[in-house]
Amino acid sequence: MSNNKVLTPGDAFFLLIESDKTPSQIGSLARMKLPPGADKNFILDMVEGFRKYQPAAAPYNLKLAKRTATNPMYAWETVDRVDINYHLRHSALPYPGGERELAILISRLHSIPLDHNRPMWEFHIIEGLEDNCFAIYSKMHHALIDGVAGSRLLQQWMSQTEPKVTANFVPFWAMPIPKGKTKLKEHAAQKAVRRAPKSLLDKLSGPVKSALGVFDATLESVLGSRSKKNPNLVAPYSAPESMLNVPVGPQRRVSTVAFTTERLLAIGKQRNGTLNDVVMAICGGALRNYLIEQNALPSKPLVAQVPVSFRAKDDLGGGNSIGMVLSSLGTDEPDTLARFDKTKASMSAGKSLLSKMDALQITAYSALMTLPFSVGQMTGFGNSKSRPMSNVVISNVPGPREKRYLNGAEVINVHPVSFVMQGQALNITLFTYADQITFVFTACRESLPSVQRLVEHTTEALEALENELHITNKTPAPKKPVSAKKKPVATKPKTTKAPVKKPVAKKPVTKKKPVAKAAPKAVKAAPAAKTKKAPATPN
Which of 147, 176, 298, 354 could share a disulfide with 240, CB 3.0–4.6 Å? Predict the structure, then answer.
């Protein structure tokens, strides 16, 4: 047991809450285009090549150690050899597979729990997509990794900024370990505990100051809007009862919609807000319209739980390093801009509270705030329907800002796929990649009817903000290439050029001929124009 690594309480939580109906796994879906000149053998060669590689390091070679009466804690043990044929899957959609068919497949794959007797990850290569594309879907247990760490590992693997096909391209589980990172990096909270005080006074006063800081933050948070320091705070367990907080079943539905980041940044610039502020306002508008459509809009505003990462920028380790902020979504506010201002003020208040604490304090504070919720999850009762901690989880995971390639294959888009907990049937995850931001809705298929309608409502919420701020829609860049090719072919080139030439040809002719006949026409026109009225003028 000495070589085993005991899980932190935060990591173990995702194992304690797991059931057949709530598999605690997160995933990512990347859609890629075959390199120029490549055929389907490119995918087959890649799959067969990947089978040759064993995991280079954790977390891909870790599995749960057996728990006993003497060792009841969850712990990781290292596996000497991993059965790659089990973890690596190759499948295909009936050609030509579109976005809808791919989403149905991913929804099904994401509903299947991971095997606890093996390293808890899977890697799927999917061919048969239209436009000469294929997809890669991977999933991993949340106890092994959080969304930010997963995104960084993915970025490290898809590191090409120029297309280049190389022989012996390694899969992500066999990536070489960066120098100086032979072990999983410690969490920031663990570092804070390990860091030795410099003096006796520090030894005595340090823990007291830390505890007082957590106590002050907890008290301020519980007061919520009654706080004199921060009246825009949202108190925990003040969320309204809603149809989002119901028991969930095992099946998932995944829907996505993407926009150019430029569109959202333009809104934030006008309202002096961040990208996150705009995202929250759009989610608030989309959920308001969805609940109105279902005749289920609460009179009080929905509350979002927003995970906040405090992982260091160079940290590629596993585990979870996240805190928590509660934010109002302003769904009780019919005015679009007023709703934006409410969500912005609420998010600012929550971030201000966390900014006063270090990583260890944030961990302790978040654990205190979520304690009743966590107990409900571990006992199977879930999120309280009458007084839930929050109504929905909304997280924003940053991705690479430039276009990436995977062994010469262009990465078209990347979609994170999250998980839902008992009594919390919807998760919204944002991912920024290159010039796009993608909204990914992971929901319980049985609990939320027509949840795919959120895609349309999200588009409407974004357009409503643009209309209110009089922002011209310059930036539907992802959609214009499709429509721009169709529109010119349809009518515009022909209808604009043809009328221009014909009038020009007629006008010179009509101007020259009437010169000779202008007088007769004028003479006839004059009598016809009632020359009888002319005598009236002399009188």
Answer: 298
Q: CA 144 to CA 150: how far, in whole Å?
A: 10
Q: Is residue 482 part of a domain?
A: no
Q: Flag whether 535 is in a domain.
A: no
Strands 409-417 and 121-129: unpaired
What is d(CA 227, CA 14) in angstroms, rounded to the nearest whole number? 32
Residue 434 placed within a domain = yes
Based on the domain organization, do 425 and 502 belong to the same domain? Answer: no
**Alpha carbon distance 506, 182 (integer Å):** 82
Find residue 307's DSSP bridge partners: 324
Q: The domain containing residue 86 runs over which residues?
A: 5-174
Instruction: Verify that 241 and 141 share a domain, yes or no.
Output: no
Q: What is the 3-state secondary structure (H, E, C) of 188-239?
A: HHHHHHHCCCCCHHHHHHHHHHHHHHHHHHHHHHHHHHHCCCCCCCCCCCCC
The full DSSP string for 28-74 is EEEEEEPPTT--THHHHHHHHHHTTPPP-STTTTEEEPPP-SS--S-
In CATH, what number is assigned to the domain containing residue 313?
Answer: 3.30.559.30
The tokens for 533 are 């009225």
Quote the pTM value: 0.77
Residue 217 has pLDDT above 80, yes or no: no
DSSP state of 171: P
| Dihedral sign for Cα atoms in the order 207, 208, 213, 217 | positive
Q: How many CA atoms lie within 13 A of 174 on its CB side?
A: 15
Give residue 391's pLDDT. 94
The DSSP result for 410-432, as a single string, is: EEEEEEEE---BTTB-EEEEEEE
Do residues 500 and 472 both lie within one domain? no
- Lowest mean pLDDT across 113-122, 205-214, 433-442, 512-521: 512-521
**Are 303 and 259 in the same domain?**
yes
Q: How far apart are CA 123 and CA 91, in angstroms?
A: 11
pLDDT-based confidence at 309, cuts 50/70/90? low
Burial of 509 (0-12, 13-18, 19+ CB in 10 A): exposed
Total tally of structural domains belonging to the chain: 3
Taking each helix axis from N to C end, the angle separating 261-270 and 453-468, rounded to the nearest 10 degrees, works out to 40
Question: Annotated catalytic sites, by residue?
Answer: 142
Q: Which residue has the higher pLDDT, 394 or 369?
A: 394
Check which CATH number belongs to the domain holding 76 and give it. Answer: 3.30.559.10
